[in-house]
Write a structure and sequence with these properties.
Length: 106
């Protein structure tokens, strides 16, 4: 999903992705503020890449992220400000993911 829906502030709540999806890349969605909806049914999701979403403020709940083995967040300054890397308030959501890469570089 790269800039396909630039006006979206959050992903649709209805089930629109197959639950068997194992890798998801969300990038270039400049108005996206939340991932709390839309990916909650992805029970097979193994890798999640989020990039160049400068207004993204929240990740899905921990239950949604439990299946991940890899999370990459790039160029999402509001998430970085929440100190995801330094065990800030959102750390419990991602702490159990084996491979985490959070940076401001592409």
């Amino acid at each position: 999903m790269s800039g396909v829906y630039p006006e979206l502030h959050s992903l649709p709540d209805e089930c629109w992705l197959p639950s068997t999806l194992t890798t998801l890349s969300i990038r270039g969605m400049h108005n996206l503020t939340s991932l709390s909806k839309g990916i909650h049914n992805l029970s097979s999701l193994d890798e999640l890449y989020i990039g160049d979403c400068p207004n993204l403020r929240s990740l899905p709940d921990q239950r949604t992220l439990d299946t991940l083995s890899r999370l990459t967040i790039t160029k999402c300054p509001l998430l970085e400000q929440q100190r995801l890397k330094d065990k800030g308030a959102n750390w419990p959501k991602i702490a159990d993911i084996p491979e985490i890469d959070i940076s401001q570089q592409s």
